[in-house]
Specification:
With about 250 residues, the protein is mostly beta strands. The chain contains three helices and 17 strands. The radius of gyration is 18 Å and the shape is flat.
Length: about 250
């Protein structure tokens, strides 16, 4: 079994534990009082676009009040985005139908309560800016994804990020992962030739960093030996007020 397979198995277990509290809060917020009456009818919406003549960096900008977001990448140079949204019917009656727009190289979704599954392709470069008030964010950077800066934020909920070493980073990329109440789990296989840094901050909770061969700057800050000399760097900053952080870097 490869290091990536072992680490992925570990992160699944860790993430399942750290977001259990957020699931309880999110379930009540998502389903409301109708949850207890098993009124769970939902409607699915699908939005898809091809790269076409799009050039330059595309920003994925998501704002969700309550729910969960899964973002993954596929090796498909013609796909710009494929977004599936599941909304409870009672939410539709109150807030109307969700919409996804693409303008000025920004993919935009702003909605109240939903489950969102986002698939991005490999034909353009992306930056990610995702905010969820109550719920979880899960990002899988796989299949040669082309990404730059990433900002993932929750108020109450968990964040999980997995990255393989075939990802193409844009310049000196910075990943900011921030939650007020919840846990953060990160598994990153840094691409060859890229210097890496991870720095964590917790007010109430624990930090567990595994970064074999890296230099310990402080108890919650590690850097690869080439971070200051590499032509390209990845800087990961993880913060939570109340919760735990697990970070594995290879």
């Amino acid at each position: 079994m490869s290091n990536y397979q072992r680490n992925t198995s570990m992160v699944v277990c860790i993430f399942a534990v750290i977001i259990v509290g957020a699931i309880a809060v999110g379930a009540l917020s998502y389903f409301g009082t109708n949850w207890f009456n098993w009124n769970l009818a939902t409607t699915d919406f699908s939005f898809e676009a091809e790269v076409g003549a799009t050039t330059g960096t595309v920003n994925l900008d998501i704002d969700l009040a309550t729910g969960g977001i899964l973002i993954t990448f596929v090796d498909n140079a013609s796909l710009l985005y494929d977004i599936d949204i599941e909304v409870q019917n009672t939410t539709l009656e109150i807030d109307g139908t969700p919409s996804v727009t693409f303008s000025s190289n920004t993919i935009r979704l702003d909605y109240t309560t939903a489950g969102v599954n986002i698939t991005l392709g490999s034909g353009v470069n992306y930056t990610l800016d995702v905010d969820v008030s109550t719920g979880g964010i899960n990002v899988n950077l796989l299949n040669g994804a082309h990404v730059g800066d990433i900002a993932l934020t929750t108020v109450t909920g968990g964040i999980s990020l997995v990255m393989t070493d075939d990802v193409v980073l844009l310049g000196n990329a910075t990943f900011n992962l921030d939650t007020t109440t919840g846990g953060v789990s990160v598994v990153v296989d840094v691409p060859s030739g890229v210097g890496g840094s991870v720095e964590c901050a917790v007010t109430t909770g624990s930090v567990d960093i595994t970064a074999a061969g890296w230099t310990q700057i402080t108890s919650n800050h590690y850097e690869s030996s080439d971070y200051d000399t590499a032509s390209q760097t990845l800087t990961v900053i993880i913060e939570t007020t109340t919760g735990g952080i697990s970070a594995i870097f290879t």
